[in-house]
Write a structure and sequence with these properties.
The chain has 335 residues and is of the alpha/beta class. The protein contains 16 helices and eight strands. The chain starts with a strand and ends in a 10-residue tail after the last helix.
């Protein structure tokens, strides 16, 4: 039995905590909102973020971050990307020196353009970062919570750490592969959300399957271009954290980012869409970061730019599609 603290009680954090609890591990789930903690304690259900899923009796929850982290062997960071820095800065003083830290948040910090591994490395000691591992891939929380077969990748620069995380999470419905490209896996999990917004817009405009197939394929090319420029391996974007997660978020109706895009394509305003959502659609924030990163690295990302225009400049969704289709023709291998 391994002692684990899961930091963040959204849908994904709750799902991972429940999975580990069902495996018999000693798991404490930290919730920022007292009402979520109360729901778990009193009803064995996270009504706010994972309704309808009965949580294991042995899963503990708390709003006391220091208490959740006390003496645990593994810390899983699952807060929304834009608050990971703040939460983990508070957590750092309470994480044991030999604890293994796992990041399961997807996104880029828009104020600094840093990946989650960079954000967390700012607050943890180098020794604590030695085993840092990122867990990512195509995984809707609700489907994992219902024990529907899912595959992800655990990437770490430390092979032993990746193997430890693989063994920790592996079940008969949750298959975990290992890898070493932390940058690529982090970026795959973040960038696909922006393309998923575009996919949702296309569906909202009733563009059809042809459009969606083209958007996903060319979106992957954009992700790979930026990833390679930032030090990732091109091959990573053909794997679970790249193509796998991109396909899921662009086509699955459970995708929050696709849903936001769909509503934009239907003519709704971003403020009204976000106001009706309880969970975070990371792609909205990430679109800002991708816009800046593309400029910083001199990478052409036309789909991401049109998404950024819709979100921030008031570009009409139909015009955004027209802009993409009327770009100068070029060979497909110009990735």
């Amino acid at each position: 039995m391994t002692s684990v603290a899961v930091v963040g009680a959204g849908s994904w954090g709750t799902t991972l905590a429940a999975l580990l609890s069902r495996k018999g591990h000693d798991v404490c789930l930290w919730a920022f909102e007292p009402e979520v903690d109360d729901q778990i304690k009193e009803r064995r259900e996270n009504v706010s973020y994972l309704p309808g899923i009965e949580l294991p009796q042995n899963l503990r929850s708390t709003t006391d971050l220091a208490g959740a982290l006390d003496g645990v062997e593994i810390v899983v960071s699952v807060s929304p990307a834009q608050v990971v820095g703040t939460v983990m800065a508070e957590a750092a003083a309470h994480i044991d020196d030999d604890a293994l830290v796992v990041s399961a948040s997807k996104g880029i910090e828009i104020t600094t353009l840093r990946r989650m591994d960079e954000v967390i490395s700012e607050v943890l000691d180098p020794a604590q970062m030695d085993g840092f591992t990122v867990l990512s891939g195509p995984s809707f929380a609700l489907e994992v919570a219902r024990e529907i077969p899912t595959a992800l990748v655990a990437a770490s620069r430390n092979e032993d750490a990746a193997l430890t995380v693989q063994g920790l999470f592996q079940t008969d419905y949750f298959r975990v592969y290992t890898g070493s490209d932390v940058i690529g896996v982090e970026l795959g999990g973040a960038l696909k959300n922006v393309i998923a917004l575009g996919a949702g817009v296309a569906v909202g405009l009733q563009c059809g399957h042809n459009t969606l197939a083209a958007l996903v394929t060319r979106g992957l090319a954009e992700m790979r271009r930026l990833g390679v420029a930032m030090g990732a391996r091109a091959s990573t974007f053909s794997g679970l954290a790249g193509m796998g997660d991109l396909f899921l978020t662009c086509t699955g109706t459970l995708s929050r980012n696709r849903t936001v895009g769909y509503c934009l394509g239907q003519g709704k305003t971003l403020d009204s869409i976000i106001g009706e959502m309880s969970a975070v659609a990371e792609g909205v924030e990430t679109a800002y970061a991708v816009h800046d990163l593309a400029a910083q690295y001199g990478v052409e990302m036309p789909i991401s730019e049109e998404v950024f225009g819709i979100l921030t400049l008031g570009t009409d969704p139909g015009q955004a599609v027209k802009n993409l289709m009327e770009r100068d023709p070029k060979p497909e291998d110009s990735l």
